[in-house]
Amino acid sequence: MKRIIYSIYVDIPAAEHYGTTSKSKWDTVEKAEVTVNAFKEHYDRLIECKRSYAERIGVTFKMYTYDNRYIEFETKFKADYPEVTGYEIINFYKIHVLEQLAQSYDEILYIDFDAIPMNHSENFFEEWDLSKGICVLDNNDKIVHYVEASQSIRSPSAKYYNCQAMLIDGGYHPDNDVINTGIIGASAEHVKQLDYFGGLEHVLELMTSLRSEGYREAGIYPQNIIDMFRYDNETIFSYKVKVNAIPVQWFSPKWHYFFDNQKFIPGWAMIVHAICKDFDCVWRRYDA
After folding, report:
1. pLDDT digits (tens, 9 = 90+) for 33-91
2. Distance CA 56, CA 286 (A)
3. What's the CA gap between 134 and 233, in Å, rounded?
4. CA-to-CA distance for 48 and 287, rounded, in angstroms?
5. Closest CA to 219 of 156, 157, 165
6. What pTM did the predictor assign?
7. Domain spans of the chain, in order of start
8. Would you say 257 and 273 are in contact if contact means Cβ atoms under 8 Å apart?
9. Which residues contact 166 (CB under 8 A, 6 or more apart)?
10. Do 226 and 215 form a contact (C-beta atoms < 8 A)?
11. Predicted pLDDT of residue 34
12. What is the pLDDT of residues 84-96, one digit of tens each?
């Protein structure tokens, strides 16, 4: 059984994070700069903690950065889909790498650069039977239903309604889950079945049409909902899971601890996803 853990870091300008289409007051360059600066300050340790965990459980670790492989992917993606931002391209790239690794490895664990495997020895691949489905976190509890005000284009609400609109357009049942791809555990078999990039041109054309004037005039969604639609990798992931009937296992907080505003990390957390970018707090728990 060949197994691997991988992560990705590509430095992009803060202005690329939200593009120019978001109407949310929270989607600012200043907010993106907090992320960019935190990654630069903690760069070495964010890599080392992942490599150390892979060594403890005896699996391969690969770190993907800005190299010729990424440049080739980015150049082609920009040429084919100029409407997509640099931030969005990076998030498509991590799924591209997942597909590439599925050609050589049986089981794969992806960890976002801001996600930290804590200083424990529990083996992810032994705790989760990946033959039963792809392991991801759902952010369904963060959906704001009956939204009256604009939210971030990267909010769970934005992803939920965008995926819902895509499913309705294709004649599928509108129920969907807001999948967080910050941590993904998957077998090669399920990655291939997901077929993420199969028909991507059609999928992105659909996402563009859902933001068009004609769709607004149809009156299916209010303007503030349509304003949140973007080309989000997690929206497409949720869409593909439903359309291709992929089995999913939902992470418990132990394996994907969503560290945002609570300023507390329990000792049982195995992988901490530092949404707030307060890495100093994470290291204090890590070193305890």
Report:
1. 778 899 999 999 999 999 999 999 999 999 999 999 999 999 999 999 998 988 899 99
2. 15
3. 16
4. 13
5. 165
6. 0.91
7. 3-287
8. yes
9. 203, 206, 207, 210, 235, 239
10. yes
11. 78
12. 988 899 999 999 9
Q: How far apart are CA 167 and CA 177, in angstroms?
A: 12
Q: Which positions ≥6 away from 8 have C-beta within 8 Å?
A: 63, 64, 65, 90, 93, 94, 97, 112, 113
Residues contacting 56, CB < 8 A, separation 6+: 121
Average pLDDT over residues 100-110: 98
Whether 186 and 192 have beta carbons less than 8 Å apart is answered as no
* Distance in angstroms (rounded) separating the CA atoms of residues 37 and 14: 10
Cα dist from 145 to 125, 149, 179, whole Å? 36, 11, 17
Topology annotation, domain 3-287: Spore Coat Polysaccharide Biosynthesis Protein SpsA; Chain A (3.90.550)
- The DSSP annotation for the chain comes to --EEEEEE-----GGGTTTTT---TT--HHHHHHHHHHHHHTHHHHHHHHHHHHHHHT-EEEEE-SSHHHHHHHHHHHHH-TTS-HHHHHHHHHHHHHHHHTTT-SEEEEE-TTEEE-S----HHHHS-GGG-EEEEE-GGG--SS--S---TTSHHHHHHHHHHHHHHTT-------EEEEEEEEEHHHHHHH-TTTTHHHHHHHHHHTTSHHHHHHTSS-HHHHTT----HHHHHHHHHHHTT--EEEPPTTTSEEESSS----TT-SEEEETT--HHHHHHHHH-
How many other CB atoms sit within 10 Å of the CB of residue 11? 11
**What are the tokens at 150?**
């604009």
Confidence label for 278 from pLDDT (cuts 50, 70 and 90): very high
Q: Which residues are bridge partners to 250 per DSSP? A: 136
Q: Which residue has the tokens 């033959």?
A: 131
